[in-house]
Structures are given as C-alpha cells and as structure tokens.
Chromosomal replication initiator protein DnaA
Amino acid sequence: LWRRCLSRLEAEFSVEDVQMYLAPLQVSEGEGGLTLWAPNAYTMETVRERFLDPILRVLELIGGAPVAVDLQVGVRPSARDAARPALRSTKPATPERGVESNLDPNYTFETFVEGKSNQLGKAAAMQVAQNPGRAYNPLLLYGGTGLGKTHLMHAAGNLMRANRPDVKVLYLRSEQFVSGMVRALQQKNMDDFKRRFRSVDALLIDDIQFFAGKNTTQEEFFHTFNALFEGKQQIILTCDRYPKEVDNLEPRLKSRLGWGLSVAIEPPDFETRAAIVLAKAQAKGVELPEEVAVLMAKRMRSNVRDLEGALNTLVARANFEGRRISPEFAQETLRDLLTVHAQAITIPNIQKTVADYYQLRLTDLLSAKRSRSIARPRQMAMALAKELTEHSLPEIGDAFGGRDHTTVLHACRTIRDLRETDGKLRQDWEKLLRMLTE
Ligand code: ADP
Ligand code: MG
C-alpha cells in the first residue's frame, strides 16, 4: 500500500521533497493503521505539516477506505530488532524496559546552541534533568513555533537517562496523550492508561495548547498531573504561548502550571541563528561557508525550523547536482524562501502592525505628537524596525517622518531597558515580534 502511495506522491511533489522527506520514511503496519517512522523530529514535523494530508488522501484513494496514520520518530520495529546490536552501540537511549520513552537521541544539550534567547530555558531544563522532581516541577517551556522547545525537552529526557539508565521517561506529543486516552475510553481500560502515565519518573508532554477545549482530556491530565506532582515525579511541558493566554484551558490547570517554573523561549538573535546553522551543517558533515550561514541567518529571522529546512534544501540540492554550496548557489537555491522572509518585514509593515496593535492611527504614529500614548508605541516601532530590518538608523528616522538618527537610537535603548523592567512592555514586544515574524 505504502509503495503505491509513494509512487503517486512522487508525481505530485518535487524530486527534492520526495528524496528528503518521503523516501526516508519507514513503514510498519499495525491493527490501527500505518505508522510512518521518520529518521528525526525535523522530518517528522515537516511530513506532518506538509505531507500528511496528501498521504491520507492518496491512501484512501488507493485503499478504498480511510487509513489511520501515525507519525513517529525512530526505526520501524522489525528493522529495529534486526539492527539491535548496532543500534545499542550508537544509541545508549534504547529502552531496556517495557516503556518506550519516545525520546529522539539526536536532541541533546550538546547539539543545542545556546544564545540569549534560550539561555534560561536551557539552564532550567538541565537543572531539572540533573535533579528530576526536585528542581522545578513542573517545568514549562513556552514560546513560538520552531524555537527549540521540543529539542530542549528531549535533551532533558536524554540527560536524565544518561545519568540514570533505569529512569523511566515518557515523551508524548499532546495529541498522542489525547488519542491514547480516547482509545482507552473506547476499550474501557482507563486503568491501564492511568497506570502507564503515573508509573513514570518523568512525563514530558509537548504542545499542551492542543488540550484547549478538550475537557475530558484536561480533566484526565489534571489528575495525572496531581498524581505525578505528589509523587515528586518530574513533569515537563511545552506550550506555544504563555498558558494564561490559551483560551479554553481550565483555570485550575492553568494555575497548576504556574506552580513550578515557566520559561519563555524567544526567537534567537542573529549571532545565535548563524551559530545554529553552522552547527547543524557540521553535524551533517557539510562544509558550509560562513558567508552562507550569515546570509541565511540575516534573512531568515522567524524560526529555527525554517532555517534548518533551508539548510536541508541546500544540502539536498547540492548533493543532487554535485555542486559546492557557494553564496551564489545559496542565493539561487533559496531565492524564494529568502524573499518571502525579507518581504514579510518592512518598515511600513512594522508601522502598520504597531499602530493596529495599540489602536492608533498610522498618521498619529508618524506624527510629531509627543504624548506618551503615542510616543511609546512609536519608539516600539522604531526599535522593531532596527531589530527586524536591515535599515540603518538614519533610514529608519526618515521612514518615521524625518526624525534624526539619534532619536532612533534613543528609542532602541529606551525599549531595550524597558523590556528588562516593564513586564507589560516586554509582553507587547514579544507579541509584536511574533506577529511580525510568523
Ligand atoms: P519548537 O518545539 O519550539 O517548535 P523544535 O524544538 O522542534 O521547536 O525546534 C525546531 C528545530 O530547530 C529542531 O530541529 C531543533 O533541533 C532546532 N533548534 C531550535 N533551536 C535550536 C538551538 N538553539 N540549537 C540547535 N538547534 C535548534
Ligand atoms: Mg515543538
């Protein structure tokens, strides 16, 4: 079935897409449907986002009925048995006991590049891993998509297991928690379900914003949470925004989430982005000229996943065509991606977004008015322009009604300082950054 599905998809997608994402998938068949095994989380996420719907459509078409498909990171079970001796030496994280941890061994602290934007998150995840159940419980990492939350979560799990191989860690995406629960309810073995979760030393649940509006799930999760918390078992969670801002999440759950430590993961700055690209290239054994890393980091600001996707595209095409990754080659290959990213953020776009956000008229924002309610948003917009575009201070001044470059500099400094001291302003900044970069 999968063979036939794949050959249909080959007609539908580019050679590179197929080579990079679809061909590496392994397939196993279970009672419930197909499981696709991806070599790493990046591939899995991409398949989930871009290819899952077409796959489901084609499978239904050729199979004559809908087929359930689950995505996992790892090696297909039968292949895993065959390859066990080899696997054990390369992956110390292979579970020895009944419970699969679902951890991706590639996501470790060693492969995580630290920068100002993720320093706290990394430190907290390490402390929790060194001292499960006792440092911070729960640990909640939150922030926009593709910023490294999942990576850090796996890294914490992997470190716990490296320290103590017998520790039971279970990683689940929140959809898996939901579907596991639904299945348990249908098959009337909720007791097993409960036991499965409550017997672990550390439970890692990714993207809990998916719990929003799912009341039965929240109820069950709430009880699981309490049981683990009381047992001093570690809980690590991620969410794509500050949980208080997730609608339809129960207040009592929200309040529990605040019992431990919540850390924001922010978009990495330019240096960190460049370092990440270089590190990822090195991990792939690819020689990436620094100029190319700089080009990519400059132009692609929003998230690391896109950056990594761009790198994969480069590498795939370079291999395919037997070419070296020069800056010209990168420009040419990533042209569409780079312009999309560059176009999205312009000074007028920032001005409009900021004006809308503060419910001001654009003309007021650009006017000479000095009242605080206008001047502060104006400074915000200038600081964002400096942060997100390549324009110089004088150019930004010009775009804001012909202001002097020292005014722009002052605005940037004011906003930077206020971000340290003024929580509301920091939130505004983060929201605006997110609105502009996603
Ligand atoms: P999130 O869960 O926040 O959406 P992920 O953890 O899935 O993001 O990260 C997306 C990709 O970017 C992953 O492949 C991850 O390895 C990579 N990544 C993100 N931040 C970093 C970092 N600081 N160093 C190395 N890789 C990173
Ligand atoms: Mg994630």
